[in-house]
Design goal:
single chain; alpha/beta; TIM Barrel; 8-stranded parallel β-barrel; two-stranded antiparallel ribbon; 11 helices; binds ligand PBG
């Protein structure tokens, strides 16, 4: 090879490097996760996620306007209800926090694709993602609650629903529930390969959604498995998922790649709260160059095969990317 081939020739100048770059990121590839709460009249910072807020509907609206201006096309919304109960009724109430927030965003005609997270854990007093029977989440009864939740969100104006509960059969059940009510054109982004991960820690502080007993290992996936991820993805696509997701992202780049190679639907990857917190706290400690790290992380998730990236850095990164 040497001296005929000198790979450094193409790395010599910024222009050459720009020309041969294989992986590009655009603001429209990013989805911004946002929290909206009805527990306080003021927006509240999230200690474990510096820079992120638990919004009121008012502060959410201005943050949404900024998000749209940044070039990001889409947000995913998580709600924190005033009261949690055994059945998680706040998840599917017509005047639930997410339903009210979606209506407000749509009334203001903010140009964003609004995705809603379909799950029970932020709304149940026990903090699990469905209905409890005999000390565990009961799969089939939980499907009814998830369908009601998805339907109420879509009625409020959600453009896409994203079930994150990991119950078996939920994509098919939600698809049917939406179709039966005339919402056959509303897309489903399925959290298909969602792992039982310690990287969700900061999110659970933000949403107050930590399970009050046990853990989520009987429904979320074992971090050791990749074959099973393909099975989950295939099942969700067979049941009508329009997009699939791998979550978390950074420790699961191999799973993103495998899913991308095995499917022809858009693949999303969720750069989750713990991944965000690691960057923010390390940067605060002066241990790394924050902007370069964020760019490198997002590029690596895209390079692994993600078409879309859910990231708490979305708005800030979009600012850098559109200037590039
Ligand atoms: C469940 C849900 C979780 C996240 C998104 N949807 C938490 C969990 O499964 O415990 C985590 C997102 C993150 O960590 O950024 N509703």
């Amino acid at each position: 090879m040497f001296p005929t081939h000198r790979p450094r020739r193409l790395r010599r100048t910024p222009l050459l490097r720009d020309m041969v770059r294989e992986t590009l990121l655009h603001p429209e590839d990013l989805i911004y996760p946002m929290f909206v709460q009805e527990t306080s009249k003021k927006p509240e910072p999230i200690n474990a996620m510096p820079g992120q807020m638990r919004h009121t509907i008012d502060s959410l609206l201005s943050a949404c306007e900024q998000t749209a201006e940044s070039g990001v096309k889409s947000i995913i919304l998580f709600g924190i209800p005033e009261k949690k109960d055994e059945a998680g009724t706040g998840a599917y109430a017509d005047d639930g926090i997410v339903q009210r927030a979606v209506r407000a965003i749509k009334e203001k005609q903010i140009p964003l694709c609004v995705i809603t997270d379909v799950c029970m854990c932020e709304y149940t007093s026990h903090g699990h993602c469905g209905e409890i029977k005999d000390g565990d989440v009961a799969n089939d009864p939980s499907l009814k609650l998830l369908c009601k939740t998805a339907l109420s969100q879509v009625k409020a104006g959600a453009d896409v629903v994203a079930p994150s509960d990991m119950m078996d059969g939920r994509v098919g059940a939600i698809r049917k529930a939406l179709d039966d009510e005339g919402f056959q054109d509303t897309a489903i982004m399925a959290y298909s390969a969602k792992y039982a991960s310690a990287f969700y820690g900061p999110f659970r502080e933000a949403a107050g959604s930590a399970p009050q007993f046990g853990d989520r290992q009987s429904y979320q996936m074992d971090p050791a498995n990749v074959r099973e991820a393909l099975k989950e993805v295939q099942a969700d696509i067979d049941e009508g998922a329009d997009m699939v997701m791998v979550k978390p992202a950074l420790s699961y780049l191999d799973v993103i790649r495998a899913v991308k190679q095995s499917t022809n639907v858009p693949v999303a990857a969720y750069n989750v709260s713990g991944e965000y917190a690691m960057v923010e706290f390390a940067a605060k400690a002066g241990a790394l160059d924050r902007e370069r790290i964020i760019r490198e992380i997002l590029t690596s998730i895209r390079r692994a095969g993600a078409d879309l990236i859910l990231t708490y850095h979305a708005v800030e990164a979009a600012g850098w990317l559109s200037k590039r």
